[in-house]
Amino acid sequence: MTAYIIKRLFISIPVLFGILLVTFVLARLIPGDPCKAILGEKATVEVCEKFKIRFGLDKPIHTQFMLYSKRVVVGDFGNSIRFSRPVSQILVERFPVTIELALGGLVVAIIVGVFLGIISALKHNTSIDVGTMVLANIGISMPVFWLGLMLAYLFGLLLKDTIFWLPPSGRLTAGLSSIPFFEVWGWEVVKGTTKSKVLEFFANHYIFNAFITGNWEIFKDAIRHMILPVIALSTIPMAIIARITRSSLLEVLGRDYIRTARAKGVKNTNVVTKHALRNAMLPVVTILGLQMGGLLSGAVLTETVFGLAGVGRMLVEAIYARDYPIIQAFTVMVAVAYMLINLIVDISYGFLDPRVRLE
Q1: Which of 237, 206, 227, 243 is nearest to 148 (CA)?
Q2: Rounded distance, CA 324 to CA 318, Å?
């Protein structure tokens, strides 16, 4: 298994290089001039020339790519054209929001999706089965942005004066602030260093930061603000997981060793949990890797609808502003996350199916 992991990591290197190259080229094929997008249409030719020289946009595209690749290897994504700040610092601030949202959506999708799939398979051809699959089809059909707006309208406006009210936007209630754990614990951290960026990255996960510092007011408030975005984002993968779980479990329940176990008098609960469910999980685990990529991409719309300052929202703003360093860095980071998730999925096969370990 160790050799397999090392091999996969080496294979990932040319894939990342290809993603970096494609993103670099496509970003520059976007119609429009970064100078005009940021400084306005009235910017003179002289001003734009100085602008391009300042950000290295006056050089040939292949030279720009070579210089950028050398910086990326050492973890330097350059400075944002729009904000004149290191892109790495913006990533530290923005990426935790997207991770919280995507992980929350994945957890909800797995728990609810697998549960509905199991119930539907065990109640095959009953009203429960039909009702569950109808809900799954409705879930797949609803666009994230529409569902997000409806949830915000229902729980944020119509139910405003009830106990069911939920915040329709933002990460924390106005007036509350999340103090980083390293400041709470009195750690001495020099700002701008790699160590400080790593610590800030984890501290910007508000739910995690509040949990380890015992700040339960921030913890509960951060979770309440994440409920609606997570529900909106998890609906489509939840429906897909439910359908895959149902079909996979139905196939396994029809196999000979299941009938043998039942003929021996094994309880139906043990048949399902110990014999059928584990073998039925392989297709489900496979689809989880693909759905995580969908959650990361779906975060673009979800963050925009609910006013969350994450990677997705920043990426949209960067595309409008032709902020090439942010577009490239955020795309590469999402690609790295997607590849790591798929690696974890492949490794999990060995725990679910012993035959994979033998191979």
Answers
A1: 227
A2: 7
Q: How far apart are CA 273 and CA 245, in angstroms?
A: 13
At residue 41, what are phi and psi to the nearest 5 degrees? -65, -20
pLDDT in tens, 153-173: 999 888 888 888 898 888 888
Over residues 309-337, the pLDDT tens digits come to 888 778 888 888 888 888 888 888 877 77
Written as one letter, the residue type at 39 is L
Q: Is the distance from CB of 167 to CB of 173 less than 8 angstroms?
A: yes
87-122 helix and 127-141 helix, angle to the nearest 10 degrees:
160
CA distance 231 to 306: 12
